[in-house]
Amino acid sequence: MALCRFSLGFYFRFLLSLVKELMNENTNLNNNKEKKETTHKLGIYLWIWGLLFVLSFFSYMVDWYQFQGILRWSLILFFMFLKAGLIMAFFMHLFWERYTLVNVLLWPMTAIACFVGLMVAEGKYTVFTRFIYFVLG
Q: Rounded CA gap, 16 and 68, in Å?
Protein backbone atom coordinates (compact mmCIF):
# COMPACT_ATOMS: atom_id res chain seq x y z
CA MET A 1 0.00 0.00 0.00
CA ALA A 2 2.74 2.41 0.86
CA LEU A 3 4.37 1.86 -2.50
CA CYS A 4 1.14 2.66 -4.37
CA ARG A 5 0.58 5.77 -2.31
CA PHE A 6 3.87 7.28 -3.43
CA SER A 7 3.40 6.06 -7.01
CA LEU A 8 6.38 3.77 -6.63
CA GLY A 9 4.20 0.72 -7.21
CA PHE A 10 4.40 1.26 -10.97
CA TYR A 11 8.20 1.22 -10.89
CA PHE A 12 8.22 -1.79 -8.60
CA ARG A 13 5.93 -3.71 -10.99
CA PHE A 14 8.11 -2.72 -13.90
CA LEU A 15 11.23 -4.04 -12.12
CA LEU A 16 9.44 -7.28 -11.21
CA SER A 17 8.39 -7.82 -14.82
CA LEU A 18 11.98 -7.27 -15.97
CA VAL A 19 13.25 -9.77 -13.41
CA LYS A 20 10.60 -12.26 -14.49
CA GLU A 21 11.61 -11.91 -18.14
CA LEU A 22 15.28 -12.39 -17.29
CA MET A 23 14.48 -15.46 -15.24
CA ASN A 24 12.44 -16.94 -18.10
CA GLU A 25 15.29 -16.30 -20.53
CA ASN A 26 17.75 -18.00 -18.18
CA THR A 27 15.53 -21.05 -17.77
CA ASN A 28 15.14 -21.29 -21.55
CA LEU A 29 18.92 -21.14 -21.97
CA ASN A 30 19.39 -23.80 -19.29
CA ASN A 31 16.80 -26.04 -20.95
CA ASN A 32 18.60 -25.70 -24.28
CA LYS A 33 21.91 -26.57 -22.61
CA GLU A 34 20.40 -29.61 -20.92
CA LYS A 35 19.08 -30.95 -24.20
CA LYS A 36 22.57 -31.03 -25.69
CA GLU A 37 24.06 -34.23 -24.29
CA THR A 38 27.44 -35.65 -25.05
CA THR A 39 28.34 -39.25 -24.53
CA HIS A 40 31.84 -40.57 -24.49
CA LYS A 41 32.89 -43.91 -25.84
CA LEU A 42 33.61 -46.65 -23.35
CA GLY A 43 36.96 -47.38 -24.98
CA ILE A 44 38.57 -44.18 -23.69
CA TYR A 45 37.66 -45.10 -20.12
CA LEU A 46 39.09 -48.59 -20.55
CA TRP A 47 42.35 -47.16 -21.91
CA ILE A 48 42.63 -44.76 -18.98
CA TRP A 49 41.77 -47.55 -16.56
CA GLY A 50 44.54 -49.69 -18.04
CA LEU A 51 46.96 -46.77 -17.91
CA LEU A 52 46.14 -46.28 -14.23
CA PHE A 53 46.97 -49.94 -13.60
CA VAL A 54 50.29 -49.55 -15.43
CA LEU A 55 51.16 -46.43 -13.41
CA SER A 56 50.21 -48.23 -10.18
CA PHE A 57 52.43 -51.14 -11.24
CA PHE A 58 55.36 -48.76 -11.71
CA SER A 59 54.77 -47.12 -8.35
CA TYR A 60 54.79 -50.57 -6.69
CA MET A 61 58.00 -51.39 -8.55
CA VAL A 62 59.61 -48.40 -6.84
CA ASP A 63 59.09 -50.25 -3.54
CA TRP A 64 59.94 -53.66 -5.01
CA TYR A 65 63.35 -52.56 -6.24
CA GLN A 66 63.92 -50.67 -2.97
CA PHE A 67 64.85 -47.29 -4.36
CA GLN A 68 66.06 -44.99 -1.61
CA GLY A 69 66.33 -41.29 -0.94
CA ILE A 70 65.20 -38.52 -3.23
CA LEU A 71 64.80 -40.85 -6.23
CA ARG A 72 62.23 -42.94 -4.36
CA TRP A 73 60.12 -40.00 -3.25
CA SER A 74 60.35 -38.18 -6.57
CA LEU A 75 59.19 -41.31 -8.45
CA ILE A 76 56.34 -41.91 -5.99
CA LEU A 77 55.18 -38.30 -6.28
CA PHE A 78 55.55 -38.35 -10.07
CA PHE A 79 53.36 -41.43 -10.46
CA MET A 80 50.90 -40.10 -7.87
CA PHE A 81 50.44 -36.80 -9.74
CA LEU A 82 50.09 -38.59 -13.08
CA LYS A 83 47.37 -40.86 -11.70
CA ALA A 84 45.57 -37.97 -10.01
CA GLY A 85 45.69 -35.93 -13.22
CA LEU A 86 44.26 -38.79 -15.29
CA ILE A 87 41.48 -39.38 -12.78
CA MET A 88 40.60 -35.69 -12.72
CA ALA A 89 40.78 -35.30 -16.49
CA PHE A 90 38.76 -38.29 -17.58
CA PHE A 91 36.73 -39.72 -14.73
CA MET A 92 35.70 -36.30 -13.41
CA HIS A 93 35.05 -35.22 -17.05
CA LEU A 94 37.29 -32.17 -16.77
CA PHE A 95 38.85 -32.97 -20.14
CA TRP A 96 35.52 -32.13 -21.76
CA GLU A 97 34.27 -29.41 -19.41
CA ARG A 98 34.57 -25.67 -19.65
CA TYR A 99 37.92 -24.04 -19.10
CA THR A 100 36.77 -22.21 -15.96
CA LEU A 101 35.87 -25.46 -14.22
CA VAL A 102 39.31 -26.81 -14.99
CA ASN A 103 40.84 -23.67 -13.48
CA VAL A 104 38.74 -24.03 -10.36
CA LEU A 105 40.31 -27.41 -9.69
CA LEU A 106 43.81 -26.98 -11.08
CA TRP A 107 44.77 -23.64 -9.56
CA PRO A 108 44.33 -24.88 -5.97
CA MET A 109 46.51 -27.90 -6.76
CA THR A 110 49.19 -25.58 -8.12
CA ALA A 111 48.96 -23.43 -5.00
CA ILE A 112 49.29 -26.51 -2.78
CA ALA A 113 52.38 -27.61 -4.73
CA CYS A 114 53.89 -24.13 -4.24
CA PHE A 115 53.15 -24.23 -0.52
CA VAL A 116 54.76 -27.67 -0.23
CA GLY A 117 57.84 -26.27 -1.95
CA LEU A 118 57.92 -23.37 0.50
CA MET A 119 57.59 -25.77 3.43
CA VAL A 120 60.50 -27.85 2.12
CA ALA A 121 62.64 -24.72 1.80
CA GLU A 122 61.73 -23.59 5.31
CA GLY A 123 62.42 -27.06 6.69
CA LYS A 124 65.89 -27.03 5.18
CA TYR A 125 66.48 -23.57 6.62
CA THR A 126 65.38 -24.79 10.07
CA VAL A 127 67.71 -27.80 9.91
CA PHE A 128 70.53 -25.51 8.76
CA THR A 129 70.05 -23.02 11.61
CA ARG A 130 69.78 -25.78 14.21
CA PHE A 131 72.98 -27.30 12.90
CA ILE A 132 74.75 -23.93 13.06
CA TYR A 133 73.57 -22.98 16.58
CA PHE A 134 73.43 -26.37 18.31
CA VAL A 135 76.33 -28.24 16.73
CA LEU A 136 78.80 -25.58 15.71
CA GLY A 137 77.72 -22.83 18.06
A: 69
> What letter does residue 131 receive in the DSSP assignment?
I
Domain boundaries, the chain: 1-32, 40-96, 97-137
- What is the mean pLDDT of the segment spanning 40-61? 92
pTM: 0.50
Which of 90, 117, 88, 91 is closest to 105 using CA atoms?
88
Separation CA 121–CA 116 (nearest Å): 9
pLDDT (tens digit per residue) in 66-112: 999 999 999 999 999 999 989 988 887 777 777 766 677 778 888 99
> By the 8 A CB rule, do 30 and 68 touch?
no
80 vs 52: CA distance, rounded Å: 10
